[in-house]
Design goal:
Layout lengths: L2 H13 L25 E3 L2 E3 L5 H15 L6 E5 L3 E2 L10 E5 L8 E2 L3 E7 L5 H14 L4 E6 L7 E7 L5 E7 L2 E4 L5 E4 H17 L1
Parallel strand pairs: 4-6, 7-8
Antiparallel strand pairs: 1-2, 3-5, 5-7, 8-9, 9-10, 11-12
Protein name: Uma2 family endonuclease
InterPro entries: Nuclease_put_TT1808 (IPR012296), Restrct_endonuc-II-like (IPR011335), Uma2 (IPR008538)
Pfam family, one: Uma2
Length: 207
């Protein structure tokens, strides 16, 4: 990508943030043009500017706690943390279990991620369920979990694991209390997350 294109991106970033969503040829080299403090993801060369609501953020906090509780030695669960994949992809998963040796880096090399978790929002369903499954699997992340609070029923958890073909296979999809020993002992109380979501939605309707 030429210097003129990068300069155009710098001007766009400074003057018209909504227009950034229409750009589809970004690389990690271009990210220095963004204003400081901007929350972003780079997915297949397209810049994503997430703006999660409070329910999304609260679920992320609870899930980070759940993944942190029994982390294996040398690992920590971190929320909202950018991962380096390739020149066209720099995802920012809602929760990632990552080796402590890269905690001072941003983005952190994806090779050090043990488990990645995304929380679906109304605008991210395709990215989280399809686009990200491809490059997370290709990058060697064995465990990818997707939490969906957007449906009419309970909050659901989809557990994916890399199979023999190198692509993700669905281990299960559940809205019940989930207990597993893989990749380490983890409990996710999905009914409690559903109750938390529903409390906030009821408060909104009653306001």
């Amino acid at each position: 990508m030429g210097g003129d294109s990068r300069e155009e991106k710098r001007v766009t970033a400074a003057l018209d943030l909504p227009a950034l969503r229409d750009e589809r040829d970004w690389t990690t080299d271009d990210l220095a043009s963004l204003p400081e403090g901007l929350r972003y993801e780079l997915i297949d060369g397209r810049l994503i500017l997430p703006s999660p609501n409070g329910i999304h953020q609260k679920l992320g906090y609870k899930l980070t706690q759940a993944l942190e509780e029994n982390c294996p030695p040398g690992y920590d669960a971190v929320s909202d943390y950018s991962l380096a994949v390739d020149r066209s992809n720099e995802p920012r998963p809602d929760v990632v279990v990552v080796h402590e040796s890269v905690m001072a880096l941003t983005p952190a090399p994806i090779e050090k991620a043990l488990l990645v978790l995304e929380i679906i929002s109304p605008t991210s369903h395709f990215r989280d369920m399809h686009a990200k499954t491809k490059f997370y699997a290709a990058a060697g992340v064995d465990y990818y979990w997707i939490v969906d609070p957007t449906g009419d029923g309970g909050v659901t958890l989809t557990v994916l694991h890399v199979g023999r073909t190198g692509a993700y296979e669905t281990v299960l999809n559940t809205d019940k209390v989930f207990n597993t020993d893989v990749p380490y002992p983890i409990t996710v109380d999905l009914p409690a997350l559903t109750a938390l979501r529903d409390k906030y939605l009821a408060a909104q309707e009653g306001a």
